[in-house]
Design goal:
Largest sheet: 2 strands, antiparallel
Order of helices and strands: HHHHHHEHHHEH
Helix content: over 70%
Number of strands: 2
Number of helices: 10
Strand order of the largest sheet: 1-2
Shape: globular
Length: 230
């Protein structure tokens, strides 16, 4: 009988490892961009993270099929995208597949965390990982929207002057920044959604981000109280 079946908190550190990998991704991307001087490095970093996430998710037999169907094409497409000249088709396919895989990963993490079979530290790490993954998923969605409609976003003059044409069209850093600024409802205004699709996705993310924090914190507190009573 497994720890889950006995109701005993699981002690493996899958959520902690994902949280560490996400932090490393967000820290390494701007540093390597600055050193290498090319947005192409982002595609390699994202492909590497997706490969690690795929390994983590496929440790569960029930998730192997969905993980492989979404994860393998996303990883392969990201590597091909990084190694070949830019074309809309080659960029768009790995971007949207990556977003779908991240969505599946978020769902799987939250389902696991809210089941209450993890240690407290793993539950917190899982909640943090899911929040960061939501930001990363929307970053991919914004990138896809920009690829399909280059005029979907407007940049302030100082920001536009600091970005190359390549960065404005497919920069991981730019859309990740916009994603988390939107989700936290900070809104500096240096990037603005212009198209109907971009505006719709932006307000959905802003609402989702606030609901996530409220609902997840309440759920974790409830699990902690229930566990303490037991």
């Amino acid at each position: 009988m497994t720890a889950r079946e006995r109701g005993v908190p699981s002690k493996d550190n899958v959520h902690r490892d994902l949280a560490v990998a996400l932090v490393l991704l967000f820290v390494a991307a701007p540093i390597l961009d600055f050193i290498v001087g090319s947005a192409k490095i982002d595609s390699y970093l994202i492909a590497g993270f997706l490969l690690f996430a795929l390994y983590q998710i496929t440790r569960r037999p029930a998730d192997v099929v969905i993980g492989l169907v979404l994860g393998i094409p996303a990883v392969a497409g990201g590597i091909v995208d990084a190694a070949t000249p830019d074309t809309p088709t080659m960029n768009a396919v790995p971007t949207i597949l990556g977003a779908l895989f991240l969505g599946f990963l978020i769902w799987r993490i939250l389902k696991d965390v809210l089941a209450g079979t993890r240690t407290t530290s793993e539950q917190i790490a899982g909640a943090v990982s899911a929040y960061l993954l939501i930001g990363l998923m929307f970053s991919s969605i914004y990138g896809f929207i920009s690829l399909m409609d280059p005029g979907a976003f407007a940049y302030s003059d100082p920001l536009a002057a600091s970005l190359t044409a390549e960065q404005q069209g497919r920069s991981f850093g730019v859309f990740t920044y916009f994603s988390f600024v939107t989700m936290s409802t900070l809104g500096y205004g240096d990037i603005a959604p212009v198209s109907e699709m971009a505006r719709t996705v932006a307000w959905i993310q802003a609402v989702l981000g606030q609901l996530y924090l409220a609902i997840t914190v309440a759920a974790l507190v409830g699990i902690h109280i229930a566990r303490s009573r037991e």
